[in-house]
């Protein structure tokens, strides 16, 4: 009887261990070759704009989701050491811009193609912009370029 209980406990423990290994964590979604972020005004129920960054080719797709007068800007940031060797997030190239009045052939979004050094952490910085005013900043999880 005790041997059966011990065997059952060992089998159960091994099964639980396999389940834990087989189930990905919530943060692993950012490691599928892309990361995304959206901005939303505090009083809105839907996103004002979203950006999706693809690591392969560093392609940034930006879409304004509402005709509310606010455009969407998004920029790649890279995690690199400064002159003293301290790693920091720094902007890479110019922002990608989209608003609902932008004419494009990419399903309503603007697509920007960038190049970064390989195998460094990168992320999306997204924000709303209107007439030189910027707000509702947000950041994606980081991925490797």
UniProtKB/TrEMBL annotation:
Protein's organism: Micromonospora citrea
First and last residue of the signal peptide: 1-29
Stated name of the protein: Peptidase inhibitor family I36
UniProt keywords, alphabetically: Signal
């Amino acid at each position: 009887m005790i041997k059966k209980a011990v065997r059952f406990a060992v089998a159960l423990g091994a099964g639980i261990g396999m389940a834990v290994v087989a189930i990905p964590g919530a943060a692993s979604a950012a490691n599928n070759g892309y990361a995304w972020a959206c901005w939303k005004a505090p009083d809105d129920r839907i996103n004002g704009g979203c950006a999706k960054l693809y690591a392969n080719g560093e392609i940034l797709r930006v879409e304004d989701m509402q005709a509310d007068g606010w455009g969407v800007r998004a920029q790649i940031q890279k995690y690199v050491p400064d002159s003293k060797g301290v790693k920091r997030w720094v902007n890479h190239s110019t922002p990608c811009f989209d608003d609902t009045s932008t004419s494009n052939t990419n399903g309503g979004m603007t697509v920007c193609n960038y190049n970064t050094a390989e195998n460094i952490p990168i992320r999306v910085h997204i924000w709303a912009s209107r007439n030189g005013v910027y707000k509702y900043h947000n950041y994606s999880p980081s991925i490797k370029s």
